[in-house]
Amino acid sequence: MLGPVNALMSLASGHISLVSNHLKRRIYLKILLALCVIGAVVFGCVLASVLLAEAIGLVTTLALMAGVFLLAAIVVLIVMAVEQKRHELKERAQREAEKRLAKIALVSALPALKGGGLLAAGAAAIALMVVMGRGGGDDDGE
User: What stretches of 36-99 adopt beta strand conformation (E)?
Assistant: First the structure.
């Protein structure tokens, strides 16, 4: 009976790893985005100051730097959107795998429930509902 338990533990570990890696990537990307936005704002402010003081040379360089940081921020936003979509696809596949394994585990446990009668069948039905995500009204709107 340790086989299904080990499989469930492996799935749980995989899910935790998936969420952990996603959160780490999101944190790093948000930090990078914040740095890009701060850079664009700083160089934009410097550009406005220099435009008032000078009209040649340095202005072109500052405009280019502000544009580069703004472009970098847009690229980071696009990367974040793509990463989020990939994460959602992986998470959906993970949930489907968990549901399939839970169904297999419950079906494989049916022969052991034959002697238990109605009580065992009811427990199996409740377990199936909990595993499938239909456990009651405590879903908070999902």
Answer: none
Place of tokens 């959160």: 23
**Would you tell me the crossing angle of helices 117-131 and 58-113 to the nearest 10 degrees?**
170
Q: What is the pLDDT of residue 115?
A: 59
Does the pLDDT value for residue 34 go beyond 50?
Answer: yes
Distance CA 18, CA 26 (A): 12
**At residue 60, what is the residue type?**
T
The sign of the CA dihedral 75, 78, 80, 86 is negative
* Structure confidence at residue 114 (pLDDT): 61
> Hey, what amino acid is at 55?
A
Q: How far apart are CA 74 and CA 142, in angstroms?
A: 32
Q: If you compute the radius of gyration of the chain from its CA atoms, what whole number of angstroms results? A: 27
Q: Convert 54-76 to b/e letters by CB count within 10 Å (16 or more is b).
A: eeeeeeeebeebbeebbebbeeb
With CA atoms as reference, report the closest residue to 48 among 74, 70, 66: 66
Dist. CA 137–CA 142, nearest whole Å:
10
Contact by Cβ (8 Å): 115, 14: no
* Rounded alpha-carbon distances, angstroms, from residue 18 to 95, 120, 137: 12, 34, 27
